Amino acid sequence: MTSTTAGSTPSAAAKRHHLRKMLKNEPFIVAPAVHDVFSLRLVEKAGFQSACISGAMLSYGMLGVPDIGLLTLSDTVDHCRKISSASRIPITADADAGFGNSRGVYYSVQLFEDAGAAGVNLEDQVVPKRWGAGPGKEVVSTAEMVSKIRAASSARQDENFLIIIRSDAFATESLEQVLERVSAYQDAGADMLLPIAPRSEANVERLVHRLDIPVSLSIGTGLWPSPSAANLSLDRIRALGVRRVSLTTLLHGASVHAMGKSLVSLQRVLTGEEVQSEHEPAVKGAKSLDALFDAVSQFDLERALLT
């Protein structure tokens, strides 16, 4: 999905329709997480047709703490609006546990839809939530979460706005209990299920076979307790019947690593341990930024408007 003219973006409704169409026609969708317009433009340039915003990475970037429920609704919606307004592809946002009860969920969904999101993740953790990759997680009752899902479904104005339910129930319940729970979520109006740490490939297959809605996985915080499972290939995930994968830490980790490497190199230059070669990396970086954001067309527009 691309814009028709330089600097323009498709409408929010068009992007939501595009994502719905992808879910209907594409067997497997990969959605990298973006944290700013820099990362967004790189995702678009690489040819990805959808992206997501990770609440965990947003919490690290804005507050310097893990995703433990400290981000406010305003923080998250404002960030979503800035990225979505610049996006040429559909982006889903992270609404945590809905910022309250069913009434809070209703209001939150309205704000995220107005901000241009193509959908939201809603968690079934107890509020205040725990860090998703840590111990001590608790989930609300199935009945309470069903009420939240119904509220979310009622709040959206665009039927293509996705209600993606993230479930942490594997942390506290058996497979059979989880299957009963997520079936109720589907019946309540969930458009997609995002199970966290499902513990085994067999559990993922059971979820896929039990549900009529797509199953998505989040790669970045670990699928299973075993460290070796982190090496599960995308081909294997696709073979399990999973329809979508969100890569929550890929770009954030890569950018932090690259920035750290650049700063260490600069310190080595300052201390005389390395010799800098004509600021070549900085020059290349500046030119690539200009190209990434189509600076030439912006300068042309400025000249046309101011002369």
Which short descriptors sum up this protein?
307 residues, alpha/beta, TIM Barrel, five-stranded parallel beta sheet, 49% helix
Summarize the topology.
Blueprint lengths: L11 H14 L3 E4 L4 H9 L5 E2 L2 H9 L9 H14 L4 E4 L7 H13 L4 E5 L18 H14 L6 E6 L7 H14 L3 E4 L5 H10 L5 E4 L14 H6 L4 E4 L2 H21 L9 H13 L2 H12 L1
Parallel strand pairs: 1-8, 2-3, 3-4, 4-5, 5-6, 7-8
Helix pairs in contact: 4-5, 5-6, 6-7, 7-8
- The H-and-E topology, N to C, reads as HEHEHHEHEHEHEHEHEHHH
Low-confidence stretches: 221-230
Biggest sheet, strands in spatial order? Answer: 2-3-4-5-6
How does the major sheet shape up? Answer: 5 strands, parallel
Give the N-to-C terminal Cα separation. Answer: 34 Å
Helix content: 40-55%
Report on the structure:
This protein is an alpha/beta fold and 307 residues long. It folds into two domains: 12-251, TIM Barrel; 256-306, no CATH class. Helices cover 49% and strands 11% of the residues. The chain contains twelve helices and eight strands. The chain has helices spanning 12-25, 37-45, 55-63, 73-86, 102-114, 142-155, 175-188, 201-210, 234-239, 250-270, 280-292, 295-306, and strands spanning 29-32, 51-52, 91-94, 119-123, 162-167, 192-195, 216-219, 244-247. Strands 2-3-4-5-6 form a five-stranded parallel β-sheet. Strand 4, helix 6 and strand 5 (162-167) form a beta-alpha-beta unit. Helix 4 (73-86) packs parallel to helix 5 and helix 7 runs parallel beside helix 8. The longest helix is centred in the C-terminal third of the chain and has 21 residues, at 250-270. The radius of gyration is 21 Å and the shape is globular. The two termini are 34 Å apart. The model is unreliable at 221-230 (pLDDT under 50).
